[in-house]
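writing this on my phone so excuse typos. first protein, seq and then structure
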Amino acid sequence: MIDAGLRDKLVAFVRPSITTDDHGGEAPGASNQIAQAWVRIRHGTGAERRDAAQKRATIAATFECNWTPLLATVIETDKISFDGTWDIISRAPIRQNDEIHFTAIRAD
């Protein structure tokens, strides 16, 4: 388990809703908060960040938190709200009911 002192950022996990527009198409709706958690954020290495900047690409960050039943329901189509919006690209439970790590890229 991650030392509690290392989990120093409070983030929100949100699930976007889909609505129907006037023409019957899908449109993004309001986001509903699933959970909040204190996390440790691990960004890419300095070399990875420089390489991404040169290519005008985005770099992923890993949000490490303690496992909770609510966080176990978070899926890849959900988002993380922390200093902007992050698109979750993977989730990885670590040890049974111990930790869960989410990898995400900045959406905005």
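second protein below, same order as before
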Amino acid sequence: MRRISFYIGSLVLLVLLVTVLGVTAQADSLPEYRYLGEGPGTFETPLDNFIVKTLPFDFKFVSGPTYVARSGERVWASRGTNMAPPAEWEVEVDLGQVEEGCIASYVGIDDDVDERINSFELDGEVIEIVTQGMDFSGSFVIPRDGDLTFIANDSVGGNFSPCGDRVEPTPTPTLEPTATLEPTATGTATPGPSPTATGTATPGPSPTATSTAVPPTPTITSTPEATATPTKRPREYSCVRINFEVSGDDAARGLYIVQETGGKLLASWYALDGWQDSGWFKDIDITHENVYVQVLYYRGPDTEPVELTILNHAPDSPYGWMSWGVCHALEVAWPGEKPEGAIVPEDPAPAASEQSEQAASSAAEEAAPAEQTEAADQPATSAVESPAAPAADSSSDVEEQNSLAPASLNG
């Protein structure tokens, strides 16, 4: 019996070892990308050629070894391809049917590190989260047959191999019994006197049974269950940026503000013509855990603001959003034609001393003929007194012209 059990146990162990060590894989060939930077500037490729991000959002292939990038263009070195990857943003890309055991591989570019997460889904179930970065790559095993989809929430470009390699399952042998075990009696009769009952009466006036012991009654001590105390989520700072890149628009010179729909100012950015990205504004304290926000543009003081269109708006709302502890880029576009730039302040009024000198000079010129005609009747010691010019206080006008913030933000 022990020998049979040993053989069976050894065979099971051998099957387990073959199953674990029987995985095979081969690397698949995909393009290589390496992020170099953003223009303006001249780039030299450490690989073969270039991939360049253009506006409005697209990618183009450029032969090496050098490339002169314009302002706002992002540049990657490339190898193993003679074309640009497709540009995807806020779309679901159907990659077709895939088979269980396939090793899917991918490479990509231009996935900003923010809350917009890209992923792969198999029949609607997420099976791979893409690691963010200016250049990225990864692979995963297809768990079952089905339809594979790439979910592009952020603007990216890349290449995909649905089944470059495969994990081959090792067949498991079927164990067949080698011996038939005959059942045997669990108890063997022993010759001798007949067994006596445990409750044999004892001679005497009061027969006593031998099995009279009563088991003790256990004392059950109840332990109170811990009650979960709900905790309030701690308040965290947020960060935000204004970005025209996805829309292909760019900034007009002037002041841009991000505010809650209730009016609370969160961030302000003064941009020049052609700028597209404000960069991150950090350590922002929003009123609630989640808030709606809007982006407004001011050409100058006492002008009506233009509310920009937010492309990645909140669900069922035209407004953008911000949340505690989240860095969120607001992808904006002009609602119509790009407006003219900011109102350039005029030259400030001349100083009071200059006005006094101009007034005195003018008065002297007017009084000169009178001096010549009345010189005979006037004493030699007399002089023509020029009227004093009043001092002009223009500081308030200058301040108003130089201020581009709306009056509601100056408080």
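The helical segments are 2-21, 352-373, 395-402. thats all i got for now
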